[in-house]
Design goal:
- The chain is of the alpha/beta class.
- It is built from six helices and five strands; from the N terminus they run H-E-H-H-E-H-E-H-E-H-E.
- It has a single domain, classed as Alanine racemase (TIM Barrel).
- The longest helix has 14 residues.
- The radius of gyration is 17 Å and the shape is globular.
Length: about 140
């Protein structure tokens, strides 16, 4: 007898669900959040199975690099952003998009002179974890 939770992920069901979303929202752009190894379900297999999205979102640089190493070439957004000059340089060189959620990350971008980055500003919408105060 085994105990504990178990999840069975059917990749064909994920593809179907993505198509349902696309059908319900023609022309909408879709970002698939697959951080934390697709919430424990296998980031690379999930990304490969639902590759027809506009972008993937991961938490950190290492996850994005893992996707690139696995051959995933869809645009990738780093939800936690970057935390030092080395990470910023690596993110820009790979073309990763960067979420900016604190003043220190803005300073990093201001100091960087090699290459351009696509940056997303994160505002705290009520969880009080990350993001700028909308006020």
């Amino acid at each position: 007898m085994t105990f504990g939770a178990r999840a069975l992920i059917r990749l064909d069901a994920l593809k179907h669900n993505l198509q349902v979303i696309r059908d319900a929202n023609p022309g909408a752009r879709i970002m698939a959040v697959i951080k934390a190894n697709a919430y424990g379900h296998g980031m690379v297999p999930v990304a490969r199975s639902i590759g027809d999205v506009d972008t993937f979102a991961v938490a950190r640089l290492a996850e994005a690099q893992e996707l690139r190493t696995a051959g995933v070439d869809t645009p990738i957004v780093l939800l936690a952003g970057v935390f030092d000059k080395t990470e910023l340089s690596q993110a820009i060189s790979h073309g990763f998009q960067i979420v900016v959620h604190c003043p220190e990350q803005i300073e990093l971008l201001e100091q960087h002179r090699d290459g351009k980055a696509i940056a997303w500003l994160k505002f705290d919408t009520g969880m009080n974890r990350l993001g700028f105060d909308p006020a």
